[in-house]
Structure formats: C-alpha cells, structure tokens
Amino acid sequence: MPVALVSFFLIYRILWRPHHEAVTQASPHAATVMMAILVWPVLAVAAETAMLSGYYRAATHTDRIAQATHTNLRGLAVPADARELEQTLATSPYHVLSPLRDPPLRDPLTQHQYLRSLLEAAALFAGDATPSRVFVLDQVNAMPFVLGYPPPRDGGLWLLPERRPRLAEDVFGDVDVVLVPKYSTLARSTVFALGTYGDYLSRSFPSRQDTDSWTVLRRTRPIDRE
C-alpha cells in the first residue's frame, strides 16, 4: 500500500476517533461527510490494483517477454525486444560499438539485449572443467554471479572514469578471462578501461575470440593461486 495512504488513514483515525460520538450527535450528516472523505483512498487503491493487474498481464504474456532458463539468471523475465543489435563498422580494435550508435532515449541496451548478451557470454564457459575468474570491462561485472563462479579476488566492482585508476596487476592479477562488451551498458566505462589497461591486456591476455556481443581475452598460462 502506498505510504501516502497509510499516512492518510493514520491522520484520519487520529482526528476522527476522539470526536466521533460528539460530531455524530450534533450533526447527523457529519458521519456522511467523513465517510465521503474515504472515497479518495478507495479510488487510489482501485487505481493501484488496476495498474498491478496490467503489470501482471504484461509479465505473463509469453509473446512479449524473454526469460532466462539456465545459469543463475534462470527465471528472470524482461520485456522482449525484436530489434537486433546493429552491425556497425568499428574503429576500435576491440569493437566497442556503443559510442557509434545513435544516442538512445534511455539506456544503451534494452533489457532484452543485455540479458541476451549475458547468456551469450555464459555459453562460452559451458564446457569448462574448472571455474574461471571472469572480469567484464563494464560499469559492473555480472558474470561471476551469472555463472556461479568465484569473482576475481582483487577486481573492483565498479569501473568508472571518475575513480582513480588502480594498478593493472591489482585489477587483473587474479583474472583468467576478460570480457570486453561490444555493446556496453556504459560505453565511457569500457573505453576508459581499454585506454587505461589496453597495453597490459594485449600482453597478459594474448588469446582472443570475437562473438556477436563480446571480445573474449584469455590467458595462455594458468595463474598460480597458492
């Protein structure tokens, strides 16, 4: 129930209860007036109920939602999006395409596109015998949760230009795989990371693979975590 309605009922009870009998005896219409005031919260509740019903119908309309069925994201449903990611020629060696798209009204990616990109990345690790420590060059690293893998021990959760850059060894020292998004949720975060750590990535993660949504960088030698 909205906080405004809770506040309304509390104030209504405080003002009405002490004077209920006196007001009713003095004026038979007073009770009617006080009851009429309750029409507003009744209408507000009805409007909220109608809105929640609309949300429920939209969320359960299978033609309009995309739902994850595996990884730790299983059960997550987002509005379906029929648009495909634009295939744009990129000048960046890592093909960060987000800055080349037309300025969006809201987010660089729709919820459906982001979910699809995470599931695409998860499929890259389906055959791995042991969990890898995965780092995403975006504003947040979601893949450890998606895969159920241990997160990089010393990697930062947020990677933003406003923060002072950390040493490359502190960020990537415990990382097995770096995922560079071609369609970032925050392009300036990805561009900042590549500009800051690009040389280190090319030396330490020489194995490279490109997919529709990702550039996958892997180490060629295992990390000694003893």
Structure write-up:
- The protein has two domains: 3-60; 82-218, no CATH class.
- The chain has helices spanning 3-16, 20-26, 28-37, 39-59, 111-123, 143-147, 168-172, 187-204; strands spanning 65-67, 77-79, 134-136, 177-181, 207-210, 214-218.
- A four-stranded mixed β-sheet has the order 3-4-6-5, with helices on one face.
- Residues 82-92 and 99-106 have low confidence and may be disordered.
- It is α+β, with helices and mostly antiparallel strands.
- Helix 2 (20-26) crosses helix 3.
- The radius of gyration is 27 Å and the shape is elongated.
Briefly, what is this?
41% of the residues lie in helices and 10% in strands. With 226 residues, the protein is of the alpha+beta class. It has a 4-stranded mixed beta sheet with strand order 3-4-6-5, with helices on one face.
- Tell me the series of helices and strands, N- to C-terminal: HHHHEEHEHHEHEE
Amino-to-carboxy terminus distance:
53 Å
Number of strands: 6
**Class by SSE composition:** alpha+beta
Largest sheet: 4 strands, mixed
Give the number of helices: 8
- Beta-strand proportion: 5-15%
Strand order of the largest sheet: 3-4-6-5
> How much helix, percentage-wise, in residues?
40-55%
How large, in whole angstroms, is the Cα Rg?
27 Å
How many domains? The number is 2
- Tertiary shape: elongated
User: Which blocks of ≥5 consecutive residues have pLDDT under 50?
Assistant: 82-92, 99-106
Q: Mean pLDDT score, rounded?
A: 76
